[in-house]
User: Fold this.
Amino acid sequence: MSPDDKRTMGLRERKKAKTMAAVQMHALRLFRELGYNATTVEQIAEAAEISPSTFFRYFSTKEDVLLRDNYDPVLVDAFEAQPSHLSPLQAVRQAMVSAIGDMSADELATMRERNQLIMTVPELRAAALNNLTQTMQLIAELAAKRTGREPDDAAVRTFAGAVIGVNISVMLYYAEHPDADFAGLLDEALGKLEAGLPL
Amino acid sequence: MSPDDKRTMGLRERKKAKTMAAVQMHALRLFRELGYNATTVEQIAEAAEISPSTFFRYFSTKEDVLLRDNYDPVLVDAFEAQPSHLSPLQAVRQAMVSAIGDMSADELATMRERNQLIMTVPELRAAALNNLTQTMQLIAELAAKRTGREPDDAAVRTFAGAVIGVNISVMLYYAEHPDADFAGLLDEALGKLEAGLPL
DNA sequence: ATGTCTTTTGATAGTTACTGTCAAATTATA
DNA sequence: TATAATTTGACAGTAACTATCAAAAGACAT
Assistant:
């Protein structure tokens, strides 16, 4: 009765996953070729051989087709895998860096391209930043669990806010310097936060 | 030949300012009465006695009518008014708190209502967070000037990111606890950042 | 005040993201 | 194979925005 693992989980769900991936692929390609705003949902749907109605069944908005990802669970796993003697800040830092380190070269390249698009197009950036508030809440929960505090504790919330803020600053910088090492930038930035923001 | 101070600056510009304020007033009222999504630009325009075309000449988007403000220059002034023996972090902290302290009761009440709307409605929140990246850049410039570094220096960018992140976390909390003291929350949070994010 | 020049406005038409509905097609199940 | 559940696509509609252009209103010189 478990809803997810029925031995390759049934034809229906397999097909759905395949369609979804295809749509995202075509969308990214069209955005690259024509630009985000110049690409219509109708064009994406046509390229992926689905109807516009179906597009919106898979993705709630046009932004969503580019922004949807599953980094949060990866972050959770990486965080909880960190040794317990690390402080919450050391743990997120290590978790983020190692999560990126686990990515394939293809994944990294896609992430770079996505990040450039996202930070460049105002609509996308806005939606992405909005999504980050969820990640912020997630980080607060992780930090709360690790320190035995409540997620809405002032120190915990502030911690999560600072971590997300640093992430945003790194993402913005990385969009303008795509040849930089993202993991390195993030590691350095979170290191500075750990060191008390030396100036 | 200065374009701004021509002794109450001419009828045209005075009228524009008045219209703009009226539109924002009616918009806020309608959002309160009907909700943001249920309010159409057409309704706002009608209430303010302008055409929809004119609405979009004043505000580039529907979100903009609620989000447009002039806090950034206020922040700049407050920051640069801080004594030079304060660290950049102490200076932003003091600047923000004192800028809020200078607001009238009416301004504070409007800010509270705006913040609740913004953080509650996803579209508004997204656009507001997007605007905050500009403020982040601004803070980086202020900190750079004060420390003699470049605005794209890693330490400076990270500093600005952390400050903005903390602001976001406070805004989110304040939206859910409107009876709290915003300046107090912000002061406390930035204090924790100054103290190295104790957990 | 009058005429002229410049700026602002409103009407109109069009595009596109997104929603709701329903019948047809597809997949799961007995 | 029959039947039930799910997914899809077609269609119609709403509302945010854009572009264009003629009319209205303000600025300014005479």
User: Anything to note?
Assistant: Residues 12, 16, 50-54, 57 of chain A lie near DNA strand D (CB under 10 Å from a C1').
